[in-house]
Amino acid sequence: MSDYLLEMKTIVKEFSGVKALDGIDLKVRPGEVVGLCGENGAGKSTLMKVLSAVHPHGTWSGEIIWEGQPLEARTIRRTERAGIVIVHQELMLVPELSVAENIFLGREVASRGGVLDYEAMNAKASRLMADLKMSHVNVALPVSHYSGGILQLIEIAKALGKNAKLLILDEPTSALSQSETRTLLDLVRGLKDRNIACVYISHKLEEIEAICDTVAVIRDGQFIGQAPMAALTVDKIIHMMVGRELKEKYPREPHAIGEVVFDVRHVTCHDPINPDKKKVDDVSFTVRAGEILGIAGLVGAGRTEMASALFGHYKGPHSVDIHLDGRRIEVKTPQDAVSHGICMVPEDRKRHGIVPLLGIGQNITLAVLPRFARFGLIDEAAEFSVIGHEIDAMSIKTASPLLAITSLSGGNQQKAVVAKMLLPKPRVLILDEPTRGVDVGAKYEIYKLIYGLAKDGIAIVMMSSELPEVLGISDRVLVIGDGEVRGDFVNDGTLTQEKILTAALTKRRQAA
């Protein structure tokens, strides 16, 4: 009898003649947490799609051994019956349905007459949520009532309701706060106690180090190795992932800072549902040419709402006074913002950054499409020339610019969104969580790009939930808390995470 719950042997998967996986091996023991690491586009998600039959047996070569027997699954339902359940990076919940209805979607509990037994489903869903220490969640309410962290745990409850023996978590904390992340990591530790194995995919190597028993690394579709975490360090994992040492995670480069370019005054945003509540309360700041302004704050501080207002995208009542190069401008729509030279890479790439039905190239040129118009027609030769240049410049990994942008990994999608927002040649670039869901190698490339843009005199506003990132690349840090400015610090080498957090948690003194 094998010691392993799962063995994947020499897995090969091709797309249009291009090998996405080229001889990958993976082993998982019962109750073991295996970290699966690799750069964006390395093949991690593809390998898990092979395992979970998103790519069914017959579309790839190699062998999967499950509980000592060959597994030749041609449907997702077959792998789930075997006990292999995947929780995708993009949540697969129906907002209008209740928590219980989502948990049992496709496996509804019915009475003898064929009528759905909501009482039984709610009771079972409540037990599952209690197991996850989430008893306070009302399983009868629509999932739209809950935040990202709770939604992630609902997805896991849904998976456990399928009697999972192996749970695959793909970037489970990419949209979670620090406290929500701690809850999820404790949950994974609890799964080990129940002998449920886990494949944990994450670019956050501190999580891999904290929770994983072994680590497997893939690079460019090839298997680099699998070793106990006790024999590895974060630096060793990075070296395996990128094939080179990253001496400095934040490649600070000298750049000149000029005069004030972007002068923002009195940003105020009201909650779209409850207009009496302010999400952003009278925030003002300036950014100079070539300056990188990092904006830090806890989850819910109002950073994203402020960015949306500056870009003309905020849906609720709001007001803002913007001066660009000393001249007051009106920004009521994203088109207004881009026309004035204010471009933005949004926090939610899937909802606001890409058009899923369009190709990679079409997404890149979307913001400057009129540039290629000739007598009512698109000059495709000129457009494709620009697309090719941007794909090369951003090192976007793709077989063809004609492929749907959803065929790219998350990091390569992010690079395409950045390329789209650079084509209008911005004076101001707003980056909201620019490296969310991006691996260490791609992060390094994005940081170097940011410094290159600063050298060109572009004023950069960068929001990030990762304080080391804010400190690593910002010239100045603006701290937001409960929608108000709580600190404005020059990042001169003495600024610390503790000082930023203290500012974020300290309420502004009210005038007497």
Q: How do you describe this structure in short?
A:
This protein has helices at about 45-50, 75-80, 100-105, 120-130, 150-160, 180-195, 205-210, 235-240, 305-310, 335-340, 350-355, 360-365, 380-395, 410-420, 440-455, 465-475, 495-505, and strands at about 5-15, 20-30, 35, 60-65, 70, 85, 165-170, 195-200, 215-220, 220-230, 260-270, 280-290, 290-295, 320-325, 325-330, 340-345, 375, 375-380, 430, 460-465, 475-480, 485-490. The chain is of the alpha/beta class.
Explained architecture:
This protein has 3 domains: 237 residues, 3-Layer(aba) Sandwich (Rossmann fold), CATH 3.40.50; 183 residues, P-loop containing nucleotide triphosphate hydrolases (Rossmann fold, 3-Layer(aba) Sandwich), CATH 3.40.50.300; 70 residues, no CATH class. The chain is of the alpha/beta class and 512 residues long. It is globular. The strands form 5 sheets. A 6-stranded mixed sheet has the order 6-7-8-3-9-10, with helices on both faces. A 6-stranded mixed sheet has the order 16-19-20-13-21-22, sandwiched between helices. A 4-stranded antiparallel sheet has the order 2-1-4-5, with helices on one face. The protein is built from 17 helices and 22 strands.
CATH class of the largest domain: Alpha Beta
Radius of gyration: 24 Å
Task: Assign the structural class, choosing from mainly alpha, mainly beta, alpha/beta, alpha+beta, or little secondary structure.
Answer: alpha/beta
Q: What overall geometry do the principal axes of the alpha carbons give?
A: globular
CATH architecture of the largest domain: 3-Layer(aba) Sandwich
Low-confidence stretches: none
The beta-strand count equals 22
How much of the sequence lies in strands comes to 25-35%
Main sheet strand line-up: 6-7-8-3-9-10
Specify the CATH homologous superfamily of the largest domain.
P-loop containing nucleotide triphosphate hydrolases
Gap between N and C termini: 76 Å
Whole-number average pLDDT?
Answer: 88
CATH topology of the largest domain: Rossmann fold
Subcellular location: Cell membrane
Membrane topology: Peripheral membrane protein
Pfam families: ABC_tran (PF00005)
GO molecular function: ABC-type D-xylose transporter activity; ATP binding; ATP hydrolysis activity
